[in-house]
Amino acid sequence: MDFNDTPAEAAFRAEARSWLAAHAPAHEMPVGIKLEDTDEAARGRAWMRELFDGEWSGLTFPKALGGRGLSGVEAVIFAEEEGKYNLPKGPFTSIGTGMALPVIAKHGTEEQRRTFIEPTLKGEITWCQLFSEPAAGSDLAALRTKAVRADDDSGDWIVNGQKVWSSWAHLTDWGILVVRTDTAVPKHKGLTFFVVDMKTPGIETRPIRQISGMSEFNETFLTDVRIPDANRIGAVGEGWACCMTVLMGERLGSGAHRSGVEPILDLAARTPAEDGATMLDDKAVRLALADALAEEQGERFFQARLRTMVSRGENPGALAGMIKLAYATRQQRVLGLGMELQGLSSIAADPADSFTPDLQYDYIYSTVMRIAGGADEVLRNQIAERVLGMPGEIRMDKDVPFDRLK
Amino acid sequence: MDFDLSDEQKMLAEQARGLLAERTPYDRLRALIDSGADWDEPLWRELAEMGFLGAAIPEAFGGLGMGELDLGVISLELGRANAAVPFFSSIVLAADAIRLAGSEEQKQRYLPRLASGELVGCFATAEGPGPLLGRGLELAGDALTGSKHPVADAGVAGIAVVQCGARLAIVDLEQAQVTRTRLDSFDQLRPHYRLDFAGARAEVMPGENAIEILLDRAAVQAAFEAVGGAEACLEMGRGYVMERQMFGRPLASYQAIKHKLADIAVAIELARSNAYYAGWATGTSQDDLPAAAAAARLTAIKAFELAARENLQVHGGIGYTFEANCHFYYRRERTLSVNLGNRGHWANRLLDAQPGSQGKAA
């Protein structure tokens, strides 16, 4: 066991660090200013282009497809170094590289790879994800958006339905879309995967008014949207396998997060308590913070163990979900504690206090972490079934054609 | 980075697990409790022969000179088996205390005999309810007066390392000025004693400031032991619910049960990860030791606590019987949760090690 970099890893880190030092500062986001989302997305594209020109994009992608063909460990090292800068990264960049590209690389045709991979790596094409629906979240295969062949000889598909939680759908160029093409077979078997140009007539995105007051998520309505058959990824009826490829990328990506406990520790240290003490002297606060800090370290070292597995070519599978489950619940707990230790002023802060509004926002947003990318309950099922080998859930929908389901 | 046990460490774990599974099945633990035994002496002799006792003791003092992580691998397996041996008292605490604070001559005199298992040591610090580091002992020259209690494994120990204020002293327990009284131990597989010293001869060790680092190092081993115990509980609970049928299907198919065991599995992996890091840091990155040990300690006790309680819970009524095996761990977990200082102590240790929090802390 060695927690330190191997000589090769250290060399790679040094290379990444020096390149970032030369190129990242110019792309850093301004501090304390809320950017327009169009501006943020444009900056995201520019950073993608910089990465591409420096040969730092698609690190784990095969060389033949325009990537660098490096290991998962090197990708993690680069992400660690990149994470030291406040760069314009978000769903508008990660959905493309983390979800659309893996599925196109694995299930797409040569033509599709040529069309989409390089432009995506360059930031010329950005992506959104059109998966979830009002009645299909954790049970994604229950989705109802339907595609039928056009009644001409074009081979095109006509899509109708509604998608939700599509981050940045209003500003991205293309979407990855899963739809139902056959209702007479069991639900997982009747799905087909497409990429769709978001400028296609019939696509309307409407911002969702979220509990945070923000609207980065959308609902997307698809009305008689015509998609050429050339934009189908994989065979008709094989959409579920494509979704699994996408969701695996999402799960593996969910592990690396920034520290959540340290800012709350600092907050406690500067929040006054009785008799000149601070809230960091409060025994209950200390116990809660220490617990959270210990868990956070555990997550970090667990991530290191998974990274070692990945470097050996092993797939951590449902183990990766453990980190996400631990992280999301801890984050909500710690942010809640952060509000609590400030007292009533965490509810209505002094206008000069710039920290508390962020804390309030993060506390609201922590609910998203527990739902998106595998809800807590879904992850617990997966851990029980795949790690502990316990029985699967009793299902009422198995082998039942979709159109016969309640 | 290579953040996994080495192949040799995995072999060591397998070897220890195989031996313990064979020599100390649960029926053996029940027999030991019924006979009021102080320990599983044949198992102790066998652990000595296998080299497990001297694993991390330097070669110059009769050990194998392996690292703390290797020792952790053994601690984990002993925790998993809930073995009734004074490994933690004699090896993790007494021998390590002498290694850290003893003179060359003391190391030469005691460590080889501790490594071979012919001498057993114990560690005496508590003085009844209250803080871990008792302050009531009187040391006049080399004459020790006062009481330490409870002291684990003092019945089979030949020497005690006794904490006297900021110093550590070695006390021969065979002398007439020492009285040992067996207490009724909640942990039936780890007997506890009261030690009364009436002007007992004590050899004060020259090393200063050894206690904190000793406790940090021991906390890492206790964390491994707790992870082993938690693992055993998870496997036992899983095994039971997979077999047990209820309302026409396996108990394991109920989501309430699946989620409970999934939470335990997560807690164990976080604790194991912290223990690995702390085991590595003990030998390699001393500055990180206090925080690493505290984090390992806190998460391991949390995992063991959850696993011990919920393992008994999923067993239902049968878990409350002596014939079931849940109780060994339900009791042992409480020993581990208090034997190196409570949650508050380790919370402080972790927070005080955070950069920037010194001076602001309680």
Terminal CA distance of chain B reads: 36 Å
General shape of chain B: globular
What is the approximate shape of chain A? globular
Please report the total strand number of chain A as a whole number: 8
CATH class call of the largest domain in chain B: Mainly Alpha
CATH architecture of the largest domain in chain A: Up-down Bundle
- Multimeric state of these chains? heterodimer
Q: From the alpha carbons, calculate the radius of gyration of chain B and give it in angstroms.
A: 20 Å
Structural class of chain A: alpha+beta
- CATH level-3 fold name of the largest domain in chain B: Butyryl-CoA Dehydrogenase, subunit A, domain 3
Q: Strand tally of chain B, please?
A: 9
Tally of DSSP helical segments of chain A = 11
Order of helices and strands of chain A: HHHHHEEEEEEEEHHHHHH
Write the layout of secondary structure elements.
The complex is a heterodimer of chains A (406) and B (362).
Chain A: H1 7-23, H2 37-53, H3 72-82, H4 91-107, H5 110-121, E1 127-130, E2 146-149, E3 157-164, E4 174-180, E5 191-197, E6 203-207, E7 218-227, E8 232-233, H6 239-253, H7 262-270, H8 283-311, H9 319-342, H10 355-371, H11 376-387
Parallel strand pairs in A: 1-4
Antiparallel strand pairs in A: 2-3, 3-7, 4-5, 5-8, 6-7
Helix pairs in contact in A: 1-3, 4-5, 4-6, 7-9, 8-9, 9-10, 9-11
Chain B: H1 7-23, H2 26-34, H3 41-49, H4 68-81, H5 87-101, H6 104-116, E1 121-124, E2 138-140, E3 143-152, E4 159-164, E5 167-172, E6 178-182, E7 192-204, H7 211-243, E8 245-246, E9 249-250, H8 255-284, H9 289-315, H10 326-338, H11 343-352
Parallel strand pairs in B: 1-4
Antiparallel strand pairs in B: 2-3, 3-7, 4-5, 5-7, 6-7, 8-9
Helix pairs in contact in B: 1-4, 4-7, 4-8, 5-6, 5-7, 7-8, 7-9, 7-10, 8-9, 9-10, 9-11
Entry summary:
The complex is a heterodimer of chains A (406) and B (362). Chain A has 406 residues and is an alpha+beta fold.
